[in-house]
Amino acid sequence: MSKLPVLLSIPHGGTQRPPELDNLLSITDADLFDDSDPFVIEIYDLGEKVESVVKTNIARAFVDLNRSLKDLPPQNPDGLIKNSTCYQKPIYKKGREPDESLRKVLIEMYYKPYHRSIQKKIHELDLQLCLDCHSMAPVAPNISPDGREKKRPLFCLSNQDGKTSTNQMIELLASCISESFDIEKSKISLNDPFHGGYITRTYGNNPYPWIQVEMNRDLYLGESWFDRNSLSIDSSRLRQLNMQFENCLNLLFSKINRTGIESQ
Asked: Domain 4-18+38-60+112-259 falls in which CATH fold?
């Protein structure tokens, strides 16, 4: 069976602490979990069924791969190297935040290799679509652009308002998500609250179309599947979502091939 002509980027699925930060950290496991996109590797990683999957084991609290190299605190507290989580929880022991030299080490060790991998895949592979895959909190944290404590949709798809993919492509993807995940189309928003992060902006239509996908964590962190005390989850729910995501992409490309829609 041929692979789907898709690159999947999963920049926020990691949970590991970089060894370079040993003895500097104060962040708890629960706060690290809340700041990450938990379980998105299990949900989105389709392995050999797509052309490529680019992912990381390092948590976004330490190195945020979906940020510009210039995006650093204090100008942006939610930048590439952060001092606190998106819920304003401290990451480092007081006075032990990374200095400029340590920031450079983290960038060379974790940030640049991720982006080199994307660039290499884009150059080498014959792709039709790239997806930057995320999950979002059901209610916006204070630091988010969509305002304090605002309820979010079940999915948000973004293409920088038509700049990183055609609107026809993003609307077709929304339709396939609705069908594959059995949710109402009205619960899928386009470019609201997110418009597409750094990865989508940087690589979109250069040369391939990019769409950022945000899945609401209500779809898998509800009480039916998730234990908050142990931070453990019913793995069957993750397998189900992974299968639905695979079905969604298969449906998408069957429609593209049938209708002749241009991806760019």
From this structure: Aminopeptidase (3.40.630)
